[in-house]
Design goal:
alpha/beta, Rossmann fold, 3 domains, 17 helices, 6-stranded parallel beta sheet, 4-stranded parallel beta sheet
Length: 426
């Protein structure tokens, strides 16, 4: 199927299997790993246990002496038992941190499973600390707990916490919402600027003093499909959401840019002039990587919330066949345009009952399974090729110039599996 032609029947109204059983999730604290690189004068202070500290240290691979812009305020046994005033201790630690690191302009108090279990009021602590350290440092809080959430919701909670304190504006502007690597963000800005759209704000901004405001004339386009709480927070501020496919691959990027161009009155000739060359490059790059994907089947476990846009990309641009597309949360107001483009056929699931889903995956024997770290090794041991869902969040995959890299993330496990089989046969 040419991806210029929408399918006759999409998946927006397809039945959804909703499961609420045992689920496999990765901790929302991991969002700090990409957020602290994006926000250059922010610090993320996790209020949690030594386990939280070990998780971040291992996930980030940062040595202690490198002075990363994240850390953990350790809850000791006396805190957990209520024998010490954790609020007082937290204020003291924040004071020491800010005195030692005068470069910090934004400080996020990040809740964890332990701090939530003992009902530590980080919202009140953030309010009090903001007053103490204003105007140099703004203190906010959000939850990174993984008790009932998936790992990408850490970014959603972080961005949503920033929205209420954004300055008000009546200016007509476009806001891009979602953390991207700087080089990818610059590519997006350049494409928009070539179309004449220059009044563009980014949430999150790279620095605290970068111009960022919101109001009734703000139109925002999401860059990540897991930002449901941030969307709601922006709408409460009067901003309007611009529905669009997510900018994965040539088709998704063109659809996303087209939605923005239509909103801001960009004529067809200008749009074609700006997008024709990078779209052609993306199409060629995807076609090269997709040679080993065409005709193959894929099964998505719910993990990153990127599953539906990725299924659209892989089926329409890479020729794959989706058996099941699971996602932790299915927000149709966010994912509707991608669902419209996803050909009817795959089973859509929301939430997870991991044992039942494993049974369905084993019965289907897909050529490639996208899943979390905890399931990948066991499935590989059973003979199924897998792709780690978390890698799709850490790797630059948005917009035209990364389209071939995105397809390559899926083709590499297929080529590796083929090479292993060839080696075993010889």
């Amino acid at each position: 199927m040419s991806f210029d032609t929408p399918p006759s029947t999409g998946c927006r109204e397809a039945p959804v299997l909703r499961e609420r059983g045992q689920h496999e999730v990765f901790c929302g604290l991991t969002g700090i790993i990409w957020l602290h690189r994006k926000m250059q004068d922010a610090f993320f202070l996790v209020v949690g246990s030594r386990t939280c500290a070990h998780l971040l240290q291992s996930a980030a691979g940062v040595m202690i002496f490198a002075e990363p812009r994240f850390g953990t305020a350790i809850l000791e046994e006396t805190d957990l038992a209520g024998l010490a005033d954790a609020q007082v201790e937290l204020e003291r630690e924040v004071g020491r941190l800010i005195a030692r690191r005068p470069d910090i302009r934004q400080l996020f108090l990040v809740g964890s499973c332990p701090s939530e279990v003992i009902k530590l009021d980080l919202a009140r602590a953030a309010e009090k600390l903001s007053v103490q350290h204003a105007p140099h440092v703004r203190v906010l809080n959000y939850s990174g707990s993984g008790i009932e959430t998936t790992f990408t919701q850490g970014e959603d909670a972080c961005l949503a916490s920033m929205v209420p304190s954004l300055p008000e504006t009546d200016a007509r502007q476009l806001m891009l919402v979602g953390a991207l690597p700087d080089v990818v963000e610059d590519q997006a800005r350049d494409l928009l600027a070539q179309m004449g759209i220059t009044d563009v704000a980014i949430l999150p901004a790279r620095r605290a003093d970068d111009p960022l405001s919101v109001g009734p004339n703000t139109v925002f386009a999401l860059l990540q499909p897991f930002l449901g709480d941030t969307l709601a927070a922006l709408e409460r501020r009067g901003a309007r959401h611009l529905p669009a496919p997510f900018p994965f691959g040539a088709e998704g990027t063109t659809g996303w840019l087209r939605a923005v161009a239509n909103e801001f009155g960009v004529d067809d000739a200008t749009f074609e002039r700006v997008t024709a060359a990078p779209r052609a490059r993306a199409t060629r790059a995807v076609a090269q990587a997709a040679e080993s994907l065409s005709g193959k089947s894929i099964f998505f476990f719910p993990d990153s919330q990127l599953e539906i846009p990725l299924a659209r990309f892989l089926t329409r641009e890479c020729g794959m066949r989706a058996i099941e597309v699971g996602t932790p949360f299915l927000h149709k107001n966010i994912l509707g345009p991608d669902l419209d483009l996803l050909e009817a056929g795959p089973q859509l699931t929301e939430g997870q009952d991991v044992e039942r889903q494993l049974d369905r995956c084993r019965a289907a024997q897909p050529d490639l399974t996208v899943c979390g770290l905890g399931l990948a090794n066991p499935l590989e041991a059973e003979g199924l090729a897998t792709k780690w869902a978390i890698e799709l969040v850490f790797t630059p995959v948005h917009f035209y110039e990364q389209a071939g890299d995105l397809a390559g993330l899926f083709s590499r496990p297929m080529r590796r599996r083929a090479a292993l089989k060839l080696g075993a046969a010889s």
